[in-house]
Amino acid sequence: MPQEKYILVVDDEPNIREFVKRSLEKHGFKVKLANNGWDALAEFEHTNFVLVILDIMMPQMNGLEVCRRIRQTSIVSIIVLTALGEESDKIAALNQGADDYLTKPFSIGELLARVQTVLRRTSWVDTPRSVGTQRFGNIEIDFEPPRQSLVFCKSWHCTPERYLHTRHCCGACGAQNTVVMLNICESILGDCDVK
Is 109 part of a structural domain of the chain? Predict the structure, then answer.
């Protein structure tokens, strides 16, 4: 059974914390809260978070220090949500490891869009890439058996050796140049069963 994944919202302002929590939960996210940096780090150690939404100006430990400490052990996505809007503040947060930065006051629509964007990026990393069929210009190769390929709408079945050669060549040149790819395919078609 997969472990549940949460978003950690860290802000010393109870109204902001609760507003963000309700809004995220309304859109199907599971949320945990912390009202200062120390509590955030303690919560972070015990829960599988996919995202941290973090205020900078907090008592006891500011958000930049929390971000720095999280980055020592994790690549979890971090969105800074703060009243500090100067360029130097944004640069400081990004340099400490934040993935995005949103200034208060903010719209919940923009926050949700940023949340979905960083989660989409992390899902690319977490999800193993299915090899399946890939397209290189006018060439389409099915990397799973029976290793069928389409070149200019012609299909052929290759020997394993020729198949690996085609795969290597397509990856090497990115199939940006159709003439080069046509030459590669013509050299391969000699040992393939064209249909």
Answer: yes
Strands, sheet with 49-54, edge to edge from the N-terminal-most edge strand: 31-34, 6-10, 49-54, 77-82, 100-103
Long-range pairs for 180-187 at CB < 8 Å and ≥24 separation?
A: 181/136, 181/137, 181/138, 181/139, 181/151, 182/151, 182/152, 185/139, 185/151
Handedness of CA 103, 109, 112, 114 (dihedral sign): negative
| Same domain for 188 and 113 | no
Last residue in a domain, options 91, 111, 126: 126
Q: Is 145 found in the same domain as 117?
A: no
Number of domains in the chain: 2
Q: Per-residue confidence of the chain (195 residues) as pLDDT tens digits?
A: 455 779 999 999 999 999 999 999 999 999 999 999 999 999 999 998 999 999 999 988 999 999 999 999 998 999 999 999 999 999 999 999 999 999 999 999 999 999 999 998 876 544 444 455 666 555 555 555 544 444 444 455 555 555 555 555 555 444 444 344 445 555 555 544 444
Range of the domain at 84: 6-126
Residues 171, 90 share a domain: no
Co-location of 70 and 144 in the same domain: no
| Length of the chain, in residues | 195
